Amino acid sequence: MNKLGITEQELASRRAYFQLTDGDLTRLAALRPFAERHNDAIVDAFYQELILKHAESRLFFTDQATLQRAVAAQKRYFLELFSGVADLSYMENRLRVGTTHQRIGVAPKWYLGAYAHYLRLISDRLLAEQGPSAETQEKLRSLQKIIFFDMAIAIETYIAAGLDALARHQAAIRELSTPVIQLYERVLLLPLIGTIDTARAMQVMENVLMRVVERQAKVIILDIAGVPVVDTRVANHLLQTTEAVRLLGASTVLTGISPQVAQTMVQLGVDLSKMHTRASLEEGLELALGLTGRSIRVKEA
Amino acid sequence: MAARVLSTQEMKIASEDDVVLVRRAVRALAERRGFDSFASAALTTAVTELGRNIWVHARSGMAIIEELEDGLRPGVRVEFKDLGPGIPDIDWAMAGGNSTASSLGLGLSGTKRLVDDFQLQSEVGRGTSVRITKWKRF
Amino acid sequence: MQSGQIPILRIGTTLLASIQIELRDTTAQSFQEDVLKAIEKSRSRGLIIDITGLDMVDTFVARILTDTGRMAKLMGTETVLVGMRPEVAATLVRMGFSMQGVHTALNVDEGLALLAQLQGAQGRA
Fold this sequence. Notes:
The complex is a heterotrimer of chains A (about 300), B (about 140) and C (about 120).
Chain A: H1 8-17, H2 22-30, H3 32-51, H4 55-58, H5 64-79, H6 88-104, H7 108-130, H8 134-177, E1 181-184, E2 187-193, H9 198-215, E3 219-226, H10 232-248, E4 251-255, H11 259-268, E5 276-277, H12 281-291
Parallel strand pairs in A: 2-3, 3-4, 4-5
Antiparallel strand pairs in A: 1-2
Chain B: E1 4-13, H1 16-32, H2 37-58, E2 61-70, E3 73-82, H3 90-94, H4 107-112, E4 117-123, E5 127-135
Antiparallel strand pairs in B: 1-2, 2-3, 3-5, 4-5
Helix pairs in contact in B: 1-2
Chain C: E1 8-11, E2 14-18, H1 25-42, E3 46-50, H2 59-74, E4 78-82, H3 86-95, E5 103-105, H4 108-124
Parallel strand pairs in C: 2-3, 3-4, 4-5
Antiparallel strand pairs in C: 1-2
Helix pairs in contact in C: 1-2
């Protein structure tokens, strides 16, 4: 529910937009006995004429038990259209169904096609039973409104799920683009590869800060050998990260500074004097170990 | 897609306690809408800075908290309104390093860097309105 | 102004203040006064301010913390700020707030070690 941010305020504006009035709900509630009478026949026809007829949708029902469960759920779902309410719990319920559809892989085209089919089946029966009076037209209009109201929720659930997947993928990419490695006890390394724009710089900083606290690291080495362009903007991001790491109580060592980067930095007037910097990762590691009170010694032969 | 407003909450700011209440309300909303901890900290900090501006400079005002959705991306917009003295020179105030009452300096320019959108309107003698918006990151 | 909302413990010549409550402007101001009075009373040499409990630090509170460190220094006490959360550090840096001159450490233990180091250096000087 929260995912779509449905509030009373939003519910009211939705109902106004779909022109789903209390009158419509009352008419639908009055149709309930009719719907109950025809429900079994409609749902059965619905499955026979549509779902089981098409190979794609038939695939969902590999066994009889699954089919029976689905048919029972379908019957409840359709009867709820005639409950006479369209409140938050109704929407929540519809959202849940949408989420289930999305999860098990019911494509939007099947959902919409099936709902259109259902609407035809029930309209035909209503017309046959009650005649094409103005009153019947009113009832059909109410039914159409709530079905479209339902469909909007379902489609939004699909979109939300898609965006969710996108967010998960982006988080995964983020994770991959800032791989923080523990080199030694309390010494971390982040090899930066590729272009650094503002969004990525922010992710790098946040990831570095989280890892430093999580591992209680004293030093983090940022290796920029794999960053093609280091301009003032990138340098400023690196300075910000260094300052933030300092606020946590740790130090940053910047390595992979090529002659070209050193030239650019000085020409641009970027003050890197507050940073520990080294040309190579190897020297950076020596410095980092020194900062944690250790050193690398060559073993005497 | 135009952002739609899902809910609106108006809160008065006439004391330090009110600023705390607004901050809590905004944090609760940001967390409920799935903002990550960095975005939520940035937003609550911005709200605190602007809320404090109201009771320091104007003594009282309002915070209007709106829950937004753009497509299906959640956002939070907070507008701070007061009928205080207004800001005589907005560019100067926004340049950073300038603050009259608190000597803190970074109030407005720093706050702007914490949010996705920052709109400031002010008229001397009439009051000030600052509207900030922050969207959930994907 | 309420005083004493943030307990200040004394361990040897070191004072330890752990901020566990949501800081309001007035609480932050009285905290500064309490700390300075405690330094005067206890003749301490070091002060550790643990802000692990703060999920937000705005410029006002950051300024009070920085100033408290500077004031303590004038009274002969070194200050180490420990336990800043990642979100807090990122926000302060993005706002352009500089806490220059403030010593920092990851946790209280490291803070104590840093104080010992700073005091040792001072002793030798």
